Amino acid sequence: MKKIDSYFIKNLLLSFAGSVFALTLILLVNTVFQLMDLLIRKGVPFPTVMKLIFYTLPFIMNMTVPMSFLVAGLLTFGRSAGNNEILCLRSSGIDLKVVLNKLGFLMVIIAFLNLLFNLFILPETNYRMKKTLYEIRLKKPAIEIEPGYFNKIENYLIYATSKDEKTGTLKDVKIQEIKRDGVRFISAREGKIRSTSGGSLILELLDGEFLEVKGEKKEQLRRATFKKDVLVLKVEAESFYRDVVYRSDREKNYLTLLKEIHNAKKELQNYPKEDKISRNFVRRRINTILAEINTRFALPFASIVFVFLAFPIALRFKFSGYGSALGVSFFFFIIYYILLLAGQETARRSLFNPYIALWIPNILFGIFSLLLTKKELAK
Prior knowledge:
This protein is an alpha+beta fold.
């Protein structure tokens, strides 16, 4: 019996490893193309691009790991059924429930490790990826300027006919600055934008002119030309770069989220019952955090559900190749993920209890797999 158990465990883990690699590669391709654009066209250093790829992997694997267990289950049990190994086990009087229980115990261990990954490691990599993007933005602010479009930065509108991606040099620059007492228009043959460590944006302009209109009735007009001018864009660092300072919920670890819930509940007690607007706002914030926490719990345990779902389906259709297994897995995982997203949205809007909304996909798929497995084992 130990040999049979180790045989199924080995096949399941090998199929799982192959599935994780294949699915992660599929989802990573689009990201890699975008990052290669940063490397080749925009001159971002190779180590920085590799860091972005490294920080992107955990987010992608958060989705591919549960799906990979569905693929692995379909392949493991499908090949065994196709080779008549399941038939031989049944003919020998071996109870398949025992095999499934031991596989289930293995899945619980893997799901627990995946859970720890989601609670603590994944949010940190999400934050570091955002921080790396901020560093790129700081060193190469010209990346923010899209040629041929009016680019809004605070109270500035910046237009450039073309842009050298590597040097950040802008051609045929047009700038409009909205002031309290008027408007200033600047045009230049060429410009180059850079940023300071404090977050200020410096735009060096060559061969241009500016037109400034001031006054309550725009009666004051000033016009001048220049060979070289330096324009300091008065950008609020907190506003322009606030994303890197503030961690979103998906970038906070489990303990931080629990602490925020505790503080929100204390804040809720300070509001009188008559202040329904404030109380509803705090409740919605609590539900948003609970939705994030329950999502991190639900996805790892979906792996267990998917393996048990794969068992009856594989025995019926006898999958033997990755192509058919991936197709069926995509079908079920899309349904699961749609239900999960719907649960997140209803929980965040306080339309449904987060503890129920985020676990409905696991409950529905669990019941479905239980019924199919029970029917298959009864044969």
